[in-house]
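Hi support team,

I submitted a single chain yesterday and got back a structure, but I'm not sure I'm reading the C-alpha cell output correctly. Could someone confirm the output below corresponds to the sequence I sent? I've pasted both exactly as they appear in my results page.

Thanks,
R.
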Amino acid sequence: MSEIKNKTVLITGATSGIGKSCAKVFAREGAKIVLAARREKLLSEVAEELKREYNAQVFSVVMDVKKHSSVKKAIDSLSGEWRNIDILINNAGMARGLEKVQEGTIEGWDETIDTNIKGVLYVTREVLPGMIERQNGHIIFLGSTAGHDVYPGGSVYCATKFAVKALAQATRIDVLDKYVKVTSVDPGMVETNFSNVRFPDDPERAANVYKGITPLTPDDVAETILFAASRPRHVNLNQIIMTPIAQAQSNFIIKKPV
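Hi R., thanks for writing in. Yes, this is the structure output for that exact sequence:
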C-alpha cells in the first residue's frame, strides 16, 4: 500500500495480541516498525520475526506506559528518522477482574486506569507534538465496545474505554487545524491474552470467555487498523466499531452449544 510503505509506525503493547498483529501487517506493507512494550526478551523475539519474515526495518524500545518517565525515556531514545513517527497505534491496554464496584480491588483499578487512560495520554503527549510540527501523522486509539455500553462487573474497565473514546474525539478537535488524523478502532470480543490477564488465577474462567462463539482475531483488528491508516491523505475515519457476527454489543452475545 503506497500510503503505508516507508512510514514509521510506533505500536505500544507490541509483543502480543493486537499489537503484535499490527506489527506484522504494517511490516508486510513496507512500514518501518517501532515496537514498544515492557519485556525486552519478547521485543527481541518479535523484532527478529519481523526482520526474518518481512525484511522489515525495526527498532525496539522498552516502555511501561503506566510510567511517564519510562515513556519519555523510550521516545527520547529514538534518533534520526526513527523520531518522525507517522502513525501511533495506542494499543496497550488491560483489565483486572470482573467485580462489582463495591467488591473491586484498588490495586486492580489503579493498574487498569494507569494503563488504559494515563498510558494513552503519556504516549500521545510525547509523540503528537512532532506530528503537529510536521503537520502530518495519524493517532490510532484502541477503544472497545465497552466504551459504548457498559456490562455487569465492567465498571472501571468500561470507564477507561469511555475515556479513550472521549480522548480520541477531543484530540481530533485539538489537531483539526494541524492536519493530523485521529481514529478510534473499537472492537468487541477478540481472542487474545486479555482474559488471561483479567483472570490470572482462574484459567478455566478465562478459557470459557470465548466458548460457543467465533470471536474476532487479533489479525481481524490489525487489518482494520491498516485499512484506516492507509486511506488517502484527505480521508479520516473517525471511529470504527467492529464485533464478531455473534455479538451486537457488550450485553448481546449469542453463544451456541459446542
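A quick pointer for reading it: The mean pLDDT is 95. Let us know if anything else looks off.

Best,
Support desk
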